[in-house]
Amino acid sequence: MKAVIESLKSGNWRALLACFLYFDTGFTVWVMLGPLAPFIGKDIAMTPPESGFLVAVPVLSAAILRVTLGNLFQSVDGKKLAMMGVLLSAIPSIVLPLLAGPPSYSLLLTLGVFLGVGGASFAVALPMAGSNYPPKVQGLVLGLAAAGNIGAVLDGFMFPGLAQHYGWQYATAAALPLLALTALALIFWAKDLSPKAGNVGRSFAAFAVTLVGMLVLVQLVHAGVLGAGKTGLLLLPALGAALAIAVLPQRYRAVLAERDTWVIMLVYSITFGGFVGMSSYVSLLLTTQYQMTKVDAGLLMALFAFTGAIVRPLGGLIADRITGVRSLMVLLALISILDFTFAAWMPPLAGGIVVLLALYMCFGLGNGSTFQLVPQRWQGKTGVMTGIIGAAGGIGGFYLPVIMGIAKESTGSYQMGFATFGVLAAAAFVLVIALRQQWLSWASADAQGKTGDAPLGEMVHAE
To answer: What long-range pairs does 427-436 form, CB within 8 A, spacing at least 24?
Structure first.
C-alpha cells in the first residue's frame, strides 16, 4: 500500500482523480441502457436481436468515436475535449424525461449513439491521466484512471430501482448530477501535459464526420438498407470502423499495417469487449435464462461490474511486476476455459453466478494488463493507439450482445454465444504465446530506457 501511495505522489493525483471521474460518469451513461432494457421492453416491443442491438449501439458508437477522439487528443487540450464529451453524453438524459410518452425505437437508437460519447471518454481520460505521471508507474496510473469502469456499478444499483418507482425515462435523468460533478472536477483539477501537434480543424472535422456517420449508419441498419435480417447488424462495426479509419491522418493509419496492432486489438476486444458487452447484456441474460426480477438482475450486474472494475488497477500493478505479456497468457486461457464451461454446462443460477463473476475478474485484470504494454510499444502515438485499441474493445463489446441475442433467437439457448467467444479467446491466447518473446523484448527495452523522472507526456511524440 505504501508503494501505491508513493507512486501516486510522484505525479498530480488531483488530475488523476478528475480523469477517473470523467471516465466513471462517462461509463455510467454509456451502459445505462443495459439495466434499463428489461423495463424498455415493456413499453417498446422488441425481438431478442433488436434488444441486443439497442444495448449494443452505445458500445459500438463509443468504439468508433474513440478512434477520432484519440486523434483529436493529439492536437487539442484534453480538458476541453472532456468538457465536450460531458455535454454530448448528457443529451439522452435531458431528452428522454422531457418526452410526453415512450420514445420510438428509432429515437432510442439515435440517443444510443450519443450515449456512446460517454464511453469514448476512454481515449481522453487515460492518456491525459498518464501525462501527469512518470513512465515507471504507468500500469498503476492507467489502471486507476480506467477503473472508471466502476461506473457500471452505479447503473446496476441506481437505474433499475428508479425505473421501477418513477419510470425508466425519468430514471435516466439521474445521470445529470453525476455529469455536473464531473464537469466541476475537470474545470478545477484536470490537466493535460501531453505535447500537441497536428491540424486542429481537420481533427475536429474527422470527429464530427464519425459522429454524424454513426447516426446515419445506425438508422440505415434499422431500416434494413444495409441488408435484411442479421446482415446489417454484423456489417455495422466494419462500416463504422472504415469510416473512422478513412478520416484519420495517414501517419496514424500506418499503425494499422502493423501485426502487433491487430493482435493487441483482438486481445482488448476480448477483455474490455467482454466487460462492457456483458455489462450491457447480463441483465437480459439473467432475466431470460434464470427468470430473475429486473431489480435483482440489476443488482447482480452491479456486483459483476464492481468486481471487474476494482481489479483493473491490480491488473496494471501485476503487469508492472511480471509484464503484461505473461499476465495476458494466463488470463486469456482462463477466459476461454470459462466461456466453454458456461457453454457446455449451462449452469444453474448459483453456478452461473460463479462463472460470470470469474469471467469479470479475468476481464478486469486483462484490461489493466493490456494497457501496460501500449506506452512501451507505441511511444509518441499513445493517444491514437488508445483510441484504436479502445475501439477494438468497443467492437468486441458490440458483438457480444448482438451474438447472444442471435444465439438465443436461433437456438433458444445462449450456448453458441458463449462457445463463440471461447474460440476467440483461445485464438488470442495462441497468438500471444507465439509473439511472447518479441513482446517481452518491448518490456526489457522500455525498462532500460526509462529515467523514471519525466512524465509520459514529455516522452511521447519522439517520432
So the answer is: 427/266, 428/263, 428/266, 428/267, 428/270, 428/332, 429/329, 429/332, 429/333, 429/336, 431/263, 431/266, 432/263, 432/267, 432/325, 432/328, 432/329, 432/332, 433/329, 435/260, 435/263, 436/325, 436/326, 436/329
What is the C-alpha separation between 23 and 147, in angstroms, rounded? 8
- Domain range spanning residue 330? 13-451
The answer as to whether 456 is a domain residue is no
Confidence label for 446 from pLDDT (cuts 50, 70 and 90)? low
Instruction: Convert the chain into a string of H (helix), E (strand) and C (coil).
Output: CHHHHHHHHCCCHHHHHHHHHHHHHHHHHHCCHHHHHHHHHHHCCCCHHHHHHHHHHHHHHHHHHHHHHHHHHCCCCHHHHHHHHHHHHCHHHHHHHHCCCCCCHHHHHHHHHHHHHHHCCHHHHHHHHHCCCCHHHHHHHHHHHHHHHHHHHHHHHHHHHHHHHHCHHHHHHHHHHHHHHHHHHHHHHCCCCCCCCCCHHHHHHHHHHHHHHHHHHHHHHHHCCCCCCCHHHHHHHHHHHHHHHHCCCHHHHHHHHCHHHHHHHHHHHHHHHHHHHHHHHHHHHHHHHCCCCHHHHHHHHHHHHHHHHHCHHHHHHHHHHHCHHHHHHHHHHHHHHHHHHHHHHCCCHHHHHHHHHHHHHHHHHHHHHHHHHHHHHCCCCHHHHHHHHHHHHHHHHHHHHHHHHHHHHHHCCCHHHHHHHHHHHHHHHHHHHHHHHHHHHHHHHHHHHCCCCCCHHHHCCCC
User: Which residue has better confidence, 256 or 1?
Assistant: 256
Return the CATH number at 29.
1.20.1250.20
pLDDT digits over 33-67, tens only?
999 999 999 999 998 889 999 999 999 999 999 88
Q: Is 277 among the domain residues?
A: yes
Query: Does 3 map to a domain?
Result: no
345-398 pLDDT, tens digit per residue, is 999 999 999 999 999 999 999 988 887 777 777 776 766 677 688 789 889 999
**Would residue 337 count as lying in a domain?**
yes
Closest among 147, 181, 111 to 20, alpha carbons compared: 147
What pLDDT digit, counting tens, does each position of 68-122 carry? 888 899 899 999 999 999 999 999 999 999 999 999 999 999 999 999 999 999 8
**Structure-block grid coordinates of residue 297:** 438482475
Measured at the CA of 162, the angle between CA 159 and CA 166, to 5 degrees, comes to 135
Q: How many domains does the chain have?
A: 1
